[in-house]
Amino acid sequence: MKLKLRELPEGRTALRIDQPPAAHQLPGCGPLRGGLAAERTGDVVLVTGELRFSARLTCSRCLRPFTRTFGQEIDLCYRPAATVASPGRERELSADDLATIEYRKGEIDLWPELREAALLALPLKPLCREDCRGICPSCGRDLNEGDCDCREEHRDPRWDTLRKLAGS
Do residues 143 and 135 lie in contact, with contact meaning Cβ atoms separated by under 8 Å? Predict the structure, then answer.
């Protein structure tokens, strides 16, 4: 989604996001939907709102596929790129500089930041449910379906010295 500054009126403008999976190319994700507001003040544009989508994930404990819905807050600030660049001169960045995205040629491409927000909403270790028990390390049975018949407890021998100290 691109915003042309000359077509964006001063003040607040409502934006709708509705991108099918083929358009956004995020693996395992359904359509990206959301309501955004672009607020233009001169050359500075603030974009706020929420992005919603569902994703097909694999549980990191039991390896079962599941689908979860996500909502990600969007809060972006765009300003024009510096027009006068001094080669060889260093410039100290402020906190505002780090939270601001620069645009060029009077056009703002929202897609890279929206895609990044969607990717950051996805968990690193997805769980099908909070109390997922995973699979047995010996026989591979899904422990969510019931206990397995493995009697031998798998112990890592590297921890034996610590177990002796703890008295277990």
Answer: yes
